[in-house]
């Protein structure tokens, strides 16, 4: 229908540190999302090699994963997929 509905507002993880803050070289944004089909979990990939897993019912970040294997200029997580309870 062309209408946009806000499903929820997620807060930044409380365990953030300097590697998540914006700086002159990086603008951080959501680069991918994946809903778990059988639980209230939403995985969000960022432009800064991070995956955040949220419980949308509690509106809290349950996990924050940081990739250290991406070595090129493109630091974003381009896609996410759930395989049962494993995020890939």
UniProtKB/TrEMBL annotation:
Disordered: annotated span: 1-21
Protein name: Anaphase-promoting complex subunit 4-like WD40 domain-containing protein
Lineage: Eukaryota, Metazoa, Spiralia, Gnathifera, Rotifera
Organism listed in the record: Rotaria socialis
Domain Anaphase-promoting complex subunit 4-like WD40: start-end pairs: 23-85
Xref: InterPro entries: Apc4-like_WD40_dom, WD40/YVTN_repeat-like_dom_sf, WD40_repeat_dom_sf
Family matches, as SUPFAM superfamilies: WD40 repeat-like (SSF50978)
Parts of the chain that traverse the membrane: none
């Amino acid at each position: 229908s062309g209408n946009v509905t806000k499903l929820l507002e997620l807060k930044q993880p409380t365990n953030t540190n300097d590697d998540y803050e914006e700086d002159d070289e990086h603008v951080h944004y959501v680069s991918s999302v994946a809903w778990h089909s059988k639980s209230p979990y939403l995985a969000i990939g960022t432009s800064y090699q991070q995956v955040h897993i949220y419980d949308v019912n509690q509106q809290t970040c349950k996990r924050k994963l940081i990739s250290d294997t991406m070595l090129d200029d493109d630091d974003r997580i381009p896609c996410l997929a759930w395989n049962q309870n494993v995020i890939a």
